[in-house]
Amino acid sequence: MAVSSAERRFLDKVSIDEPWKLVETFSTMPRWRPEDVNASADVIVGRLRALGVPVEVHEPEIYLSVPLSASVKAGGKSFRAKPPSSTLSVPGGLTAPLVRLDANPKALRSYNRDIATLFGGSIRSVEEVKAKVGGKIVVMSGFGNPALTSLIEEWGGVGLIAVNPGIDIHWGTCTTIWGSPDLADLPRKPKIPVVAVNNPDGRELMAMADAGSEVTIVTEMQEGWFKQKVPVVKIPSANASKDFVLVHGHYDSWDVGVGDNATGDATLLELARVFFENRADLARSVWLAWWPGHSTGRYAGSTWFTDHYALELDAHCVAQINCDSPGCRWATSYHETRAFSESAKLATEVIRDIVPDADVKIMRPPQAGDYSFNNIGLPSLFMLSSTMPEALRHEKNYYDVSGCGANIAWHTENDTIEIADRDILLTDMKIYLLAALRIANAEELPFAWDATCDEFLDTIARYEAAAKGLADLAPARDATQALKAALAKLAGASTSASKKNEALRDLSRTLVPINYTREPRFRHDPAYTVPPLPTLAVAAEIASMPTDMQRYAAVELMRGQNRYVAALTAARRVVEGALG
């Protein structure tokens, strides 16, 4: 769709001047230690107030794990290393035999815990891998991610050395706990030390593992509850609507973190300025929030906000938009745009209205990136922003990373001012502004729930085919088709926009959790991959299971399908209720 004259008035107000000043300031401010994070929040708050934008500053206590130092010692040598956040602190060192595992590099980039996906045919069973790694420190290629760490621990490994792909070592996190832990989360706190090393050193350590060497891991962490600042701007609409769009991103970073995420912080600052100055032209409110605890708390800032504002988000938030790594060097493509199915059309149109020739491909968001709202059920779009064209990335021989517009400075000391690009940042700011504006000012909420139903039907068909006759998903398919038919009736009905919007908002509270979560509403799923329609996902595995396990899987599937059908039936009733 074309940009309207009303939208153009907003877009014409977007300027690079104030946001670039923040990028430059943050390029000199490391932002991962708790005191430095709070100091950078003060900068954001000061800039907002100088621009005349009212801002609330919350100071919750959130649980953080801050890496201090690490090393690896083997064969009479000491190797430089970094510990991911939430690793076990062993300042006195842990010594054990070294063992090597080989895995699929692409799978290690994700948060997948499936052995077949991770290792292909190199490991045939859990028993085999337990016998291999039990009591040993594992060295393997990849990043020390949460899913992999939890598996090594479950298999009896006593430590993990992640060999990063290049000459630099990347910071990261290794816990599956999402946000500050509660009592139920605590057992999943990592109980083994994890470190990352660079590729040349890692290859040497792998050779030592093949020779049967021992290794010593040393890690030192700062852990506990810390007061961290959460700046929140609430821009009221002209009609004082309680409904709002949430746009958010993290302001803590590894080192100075310019591309991840000073550019995102600057984008939020500019959106706050433009929306506040033009608030008389908003039909719904716009909230903007900056999170601490993204890097060292596994999204502890956004999770605190979700918990604290849970009922208000449930009642009035119509969508969330995540802003991470916009405006990075060479990032002129949008072929890895993240959005839920119902938001895909909106995201695509917004990008192409700002960048007419953009290569836009929509992908399912992973369990990452401050998507701390799935269990409430918010329609969602964006996570990472523009990225480098694949041809250019291959030309530069860059490996895959999860931010900074595909620049491999991601999560390293090299994520400095040259990673940001003024012109690309200006473009991305306009994309974010237009996306939020179209939701805020839409007479009818612009989410295509029929597309979500189509996604569900595709998933059901794929699972049923994988089951090879061992799973009957006809009840799930019928319930989905019935919901899609009801949505078609609602689209053509003369029902008022306000009544339709209320129904579609309530619909999202059912459809998003059933597609993205296993935990009950208002809890947070672990930080590893959730398959589409997780209550039905066992159908895709049942045919490959031993015969004696298939009966158990059938029981799980029956219960999961009951939950799915009940959820879709409830969603259909919401839609039918709006028809009168």
From TrEMBL:
Domain Peptidase M28: 232-424
One GO cellular component term noted in the UniProt record for this chain: lysosome
Alphabetical keyword list: Carboxypeptidase, Endoplasmic reticulum, Glycoprotein, Golgi apparatus, Hydrolase, Lysosome, Metal-binding, Metalloprotease, Protease, Secreted, Signal, Zinc, Zymogen
One BP term from GO: proteolysis
InterPro entries named in the record: CPQ, Peptidase_M28
Superkingdom of the organism of origin: Bacteria
Coiled-coil regions, chain positions: none
Signal peptide segment: none
Localization terms from the record: Endoplasmic reticulum; Golgi apparatus; Lysosome; Secreted
Keyword Ribonucleoprotein: no
GO molecular function: carboxypeptidase activity; metal ion binding; metallodipeptidase activity
PANTHER family per UniProt: CARBOXYPEPTIDASE Q, PROTEASE FAMILY M28 PLASMA GLUTAMATE CARBOXYPEPTIDASE-RELATED
Quaternary structure and interacting proteins, as annotated: Homodimer. The monomeric form is inactive while the homodimer is active.
Protein name: Carboxypeptidase Q
